[in-house]
Amino acid sequence: MASIGQFLKEVRVEMAKVSWPTRTQLVAYTFVVIILSALMAAFLGLLDLGFQAALRNFLLK
Predict the structure, then answer these.
(1) What is the pTM of this model?
(2) Tens-place pLDDT, residues 9-44
(3) Which of these, 2, 9, 12, 50, has the minimum number of CB atoms within 10 Å of its CB?
């Protein structure tokens, strides 16, 4: 049990050293992640539609 307590104390010390983002930075980073995720989803969706059309037209005839 002593080792768990020591570990938690060390975690607390290390977490105090972390440079946390400001609220403005956090909102901006979140916005970037959401936009990039939406763009990636659209890109992959278009690829899927293209592959589906290729399979339907060339392989399933």
Answers:
(1) 0.67
(2) 999 999 999 999 999 999 999 999 999 999 999 999
(3) 2
C-alpha distance across the termini of the chain, in Å? 68
SS (H, E, C) the chain: CHHHHHHHHHHHHHHHCCCCCCHHHHHHHHHHHHHHHHHHHHHHHHHHHHHHHHHHHHHCC
* Residue type for position 40: M
* Domains of the chain by residue range: 21-61
Separation between Cα atoms, residue 44 and residue 17, nearest integer Å = 39
Token pair belonging to 45: 């969706």
In contact, 21 and 29? CB cutoff 8 Å:
yes
